[in-house]
Write a structure and sequence with these properties.
The chain has 166 residues and is mostly helical. The protein contains six helices and no strands. The protein has one domain.
Length: 166
């Protein structure tokens, strides 16, 4: 039972850290939150169904991929040319490697702006696709936060059932 308590506490820390990680681009929020669910699952006091674990694993992977695709999509939707889309993509990778963690936000925006400038657009027209990249980042953050809140809900519900309904 002592180890179970440690797993539950560490799992709770993971859930909280996962929620914080949705706002701070330094931490992979949903991945850490999912780790909290797994820690509760491997304890002796609660287990989730395999369907539950697989579903949340797939959602976590999907949201992780979506996080990189949505800023590029935002660039395209707000009038970005192929240059802006390529710039956003390259800016994302450059930002991750050279300006981490702020580069996750700044890189795609600067890349989209630079790409649009290279394509011949004036600065005021190049800002719109760059703003689309930022909106994509905000949308990705919202999706990460929703998934992490849902995981936190199931974690809290399970812990409540362990300690207060037995």
């Amino acid at each position: 039972m002592y180890i179970d308590s440690i797993l539950i506490i560490i799992g709770g820390i993971c859930i909280i850290t996962g929620l914080v990680g949705c706002i701070l681009p330094v931490l992979p929020g949903p991945v850490i939150g999912y780790a909290g669910l797994l820690l509760l699952h491997i304890s002796q006091v609660h287990s989730f169904t395999m369907e539950f674990l697989v579903t949340f694993a797939l959602l976590t992977i999907f949201v992780g991929i979506l996080d990189y695709v949505v800023p590029i999509y935002g660039t395209q939707k707000l009038g970005g040319s192929k240059y802006g889309i390529w710039g956003s993509t390259l800016g994302l990778f450059a930002g991750v490697f050279f300006l981490f963690p702020a580069g996750i936000v700044i890189g795609p925006m600067l890349g989209a702006f630079a790409g649009e400038m290279i394509s011949g657009k004036k600065a005021n027209h190049a800002l719109k696709p760059a703003f689309g990249s930022f909106l994509g980042f905000l949308a990705g953050t919202a999706v990460r936060l929703v998934l992490s809140v849902v995981m936190a809900y199931y974690y809290v519900l399970a812990v409540y059932n362990i300690y207060f309904t037995s």
